[in-house]
Write a structure and sequence with these properties.
Helix content: 40-55%
Shape: globular
Strand content: 15-25%
Number of strands: 5
Number of helices: 5
């Protein structure tokens, strides 16, 4: 299976908003903020069709507490995959719990949650990168071109390390204000 990037779907932003509303209710009062980040949060940017939501816990609330509240809704736990201060969880598009409803996590398309501590460094970095792309259509276009090239180079089956590491220098330059 190849790494597939598709044209931005305007519904992604609406769906992310609905998911954030649902997660806010489900995880209250333990959450400081929820943010739609990643390429699906940037209009006109090609992306993998998977929403990415950062869930930042309030100070003193461990991400494990949030994880325990999400697992009954069909979330797959990937643990502390990239960092010790965040837990990765994913959810497929399927609606396994009695079908979709407008206010149910089971009604939302495939997505990834990063359950972050209040002091996690990656969450504010992802917000700053998203905001830079939103503020500059030229920067978003450059990033899209890079992603499309890297997806092609990644081959089939995809070399995820090539795709991911190939974006690092661009992201770091944007965050440093060098672009």
């Amino acid at each position: 299976m190849a790494l597939i990037l598709i044209a931005h779907e305007p519904g992604w932003i609406r769906q992310a908003g609905e998911l954030i509303d649902t997660l806010s209710e489900l995880l209250a009062p333990d959450v400081l903020r929820l943010d739609h980040v990643g390429s699906t949060a940037v209009p006109a940017l090609a992306a993998k069709p998977k929403l990415h939501i950062d869930v930042v816990a309030k100070t003193g609330i461990p991400p494990e507490r949030l994880r325990a509240r999400l697992q009954p809704f069909g979330y797959v736990d990937h643990g502390h995959r990239f960092s010790n201060d965040e837990i990765q969880m994913t959810r497929p598009t399927a609606c396994p719990r009695g079908g979709p409803s407008a206010r149910s996590p089971s009604a939302i398309r495939s997505h990834r949650l990063c359950l972050c501590t209040a002091t996690a460094k990656a969450a504010p970095r992802r917000r700053r990168f998203r905001d830079a792309l939103l503020a500059s259509p030229e920067l978003a276009w450059q990033y899209q071109e890079l992603k499309l090239r890297l997806a092609e180079e990644a081959g089939t089956p995809p070399d995820w390390d090539h795709y991911t590491s190939g974006k690092t220098a661009f992201i770091e330059a944007v965050l440093a204000g060098a672009r």
